[in-house]
Amino acid sequence: MSSDTEKRGMQLNKPSPIKDFISGGVGGVAVVLSGHPLDTIKVRLQTQPKIKPGEQPRYAGTLDCFKKTISNEGFRGLYKGMAAPLVGVTPMFAVCFLGFGIGKKLQMKSENDTLNSFQIFNAGMVAGVFTTGILAPGERIKCLMQIQSDSGSTKYAGSLDCARQLYRESGIRGVYKGTCATLLRDVPASGVYFTTYEMLLNSLTPEGKTRSDLGPFRVLFAGGMAGVFNWVVALAPDTLKSRLQTAPEGKYPRGIRDIFRELIREEGVGALYKGLTPVMLRAFPANAACFLGVEITMKFLNWIAPNL
């Protein structure tokens, strides 16, 4: 990328934490509604029991998991656990984009300063830190709800009941189990996420134009590819996180280190990337919808409240 292109693309609007927060929340709703079914498939593939000699896996792959979920539970089975991410992901994306805006502002010497790709990456990592406090308990509840039918019993009546039982059994630590694993996943992945989006959007901006002039298809493409590259980085630690958050209490006393050793020893490196197909199928449309929602909301807010 030439320096002129980078300057044109990385030119940032006046920072507005309120606008970042609101537009990020709208993007979060778009992510959940468009991506939850494939997230359910991903978690079930990641957490299915280890295959014993002579046994067949519970799910042969993404399509088989999809068919069995529909057959056994109906289409509603694909949306199990959606209440937790809808309640958690909406403010999480709001906080994520707020954190990204703050991360940018911390590196800007003036409101019209231009940030390079490395600085955008740093701002993205700040966003990953900001979101963990909201995301970790939501992920814990979501994963438990998504694998509940695989266990053959119905322990939780819903997301709220799951949260109550976790708190009653293990206190706040039980609800926040997997927080460090979530940080390990989201800090570097968020850096890649925002850097990819900004760089692609910059390269798609014609000479003499600004990003506000871009049509929806370019925004959708940049957002979708940002989601794909985010999950290239995030999938392996996400597998460790899912296993930790759904494991019986005390099974892994050293957390993801124990899970990593066991997984590599018994299933090989490929097990870190279980659920790759549904993740990538979900990543593009979900994050395309997210950034389109963000950009449309930001344009609307700039129109009705330019000085906010």
Task: State the main characteristics.
mainly alpha; single chain; 308 residues; globular; disordered N terminus
Structure description:
It is built from 10 helices and no strands. The protein is globular, with a radius of gyration of 20 Å. It starts with a helix and ends with a helix. It has 308 residues and is mainly alpha-helical. 71% of the residues lie in helices and 0% in strands. The N terminus is likely disordered.
Query: How confident overall, as mean pLDDT?
Result: 87
What is the chain-wise order of helices and strands? HHHHHHHHHH
Number of helices: 10
What's the gyration radius in Å? 20 Å
Poorly predicted runs are 1-12
Could you give the topology of this structure?
Elements: H1 3-10, H2 17-47, H3 62-73, H4 83-107, H5 117-146, H6 159-175, H7 179-203, H8 216-246, H9 256-267, H10 276-304
Helix pairs in contact: 1-7, 2-3, 2-4, 2-10, 4-5, 5-6, 5-7, 7-8, 8-10
Task: Provide a compact summary of the structure.
This protein is an all-alpha fold and 308 residues long. It is built from 10 helices and no strands.
